[in-house]
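Q: Hi! First time asking for a complex rather than a single chain. Here are the components, and I think there are two in total. Is that enough to go on?
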Amino acid sequence: MSLYEQYPISIYNSLEKEKQVFKPIHEGRVGMYVCGPTVYSDVHLGNVRTFVSFDIIFRYLKFLGYKVRYVRNITDVGHLVGDADEGEDKIAKKARLEELEPMEVVQKYTNGFHDVMQLFNNIPPSIEPTATGHIVEQIEFVQKIIDNGYAYEKDGNVYFDVRRFGQDHEYGELSGRNIDEMLSNTRALSGQDQKNDPLDFALWKKAEGGHLMRWPSPWGEGFPGWHLECSVMSTKYLGETFDIHGGGMDLKFPHHEAEIAQNKGCCHKGGANYWIHGNMLTVNGRKMAKSEGNGFTPEQLLTGDHKLLERGYSAMTVRFFMLMSHYASTLDFSNEALQAAEKGYKRLMASVNLLEKLAKPGTASIDKAKTQELGDIVDKAMKDLSDDFNTAKAIANLFELSTKINTYYQQPSELAVIDPEVFEQVIERFKGIIFDVLGLRNEAEAAQDGKTLDSVMQVLIELRKQAKFSKNYALSDKIRDDLKAAGIQLKDEKGGEMSYTIN
RNA sequence: GGCGCUGUGGCCGAGUGGCUAGGCAGAGGUCUGCAAAACCUUGUACAGCGGUUCGAAUCCGCUCAGCGCCUCCA
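A: Yes, that's all I need. Here is the structure of the assembled complex.
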């Protein structure tokens, strides 16, 4: 029996607005599309949260044994800064400001995005397609929508005909909107607007004189509309119908709604079966956003060089902080919360490091109840993860396990009564969840890599032992205190042994 | 105005109609030469008001407060 059968996943499907048992289209395989970033500026922590959320989903699906194709796009055609029919392309604007070619801007921030993803230990997607790399496909897609009668061309622009579409399909099912209500709420734009209807959105835009990013099309030189690439690339790489589509909550409308309409307008199918929306990272209850000026870059996060940051935090601390809440809840950023997460993360890692120092289990007669209890904890953590990827709940169980491990270390008699086989499985799963699913890295261990440092530490430990033995506490304390000042914590253990951790 | 979400103990943050979330901080204890760490114990929590129910923080209604989307946004 595969793990995914043992721990069936349920997902809160934004489209149906209910939690549903996840059933992939093809047994054992999952296709997932996630809306990626527009690469015209540095990503901030809020952006990172969404990608961490989907990284967990990707990792967990794989952990359960699914073969996953994870597609996450790079939006490298700038959406317009101004309203629907005017304004400069964001990337072009940035290019002008930084005196770069648009594609230099794209490359720069794509690289930056990748660095950040790596910093937070996100696994790269299986395919990372760009909008500019799929102009031909996008043109074909638009043509199909026109052929189906759901779009019209006007002076080099092509618009999606929402009203016409609404006659045959439901429009607004994802975001809970309906066409008539929306219309009554839409402020009529001035006569410059070429759309037949304010609700219509652009599939293809005519490139005006100075527009830098432009491609030839049946409707003249132009560039693709804002929502098109996701429909096109998800269809190309995952098919007309696929399993999961994800993105940030703020993309629900109009982006995802338009995407569904485009998919149906082209292929008569709505794309994904399950829609997953990650919630926002907030600061003092407000969405972290560039326009709010309350975002910061990863470098600032690490160094603490930002007015919101009391000090720096490691990437894994931040990742752990994010995982301590559910992806669909808003998460409020604060220094206090981050510091709490940091301690929690270190606590968890400390118990992981303790594993190799543990005595052998099963050296006394086996206590079935205690063995069972241990096994149940890790089993619960798996069920938590299968319950809409509830990392917060799973981590609570990991802490339970952490306490157990610490106890086993201090009281080997507790470990002696545990069935070795079960113990082995529990530990393997415990580590699997921490490193493979949650994608945490053992930062202290990495810092400890140097063998030289370890030998030096052994010398110091030996000195301190001798000082203690001769009751020269002034010296033994000095060794400990000076090391602490240098960022290394010495710990006296039972039986006179000592260990150290690097902070 | 429309659509949707949230309000949990000092802080962060899960949550199911009846059974301990968890982390951080605090208090007491064990251990220790002293620490640190760890372990054990400890907290009148569920915005307010009604209603449904044998029983609700969990379901329904109203009120209050806050947030998101409706323009690009993870």
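A: The longest strand of chain A covers residues 241-248. Let me know if you'd like any chain examined more closely.
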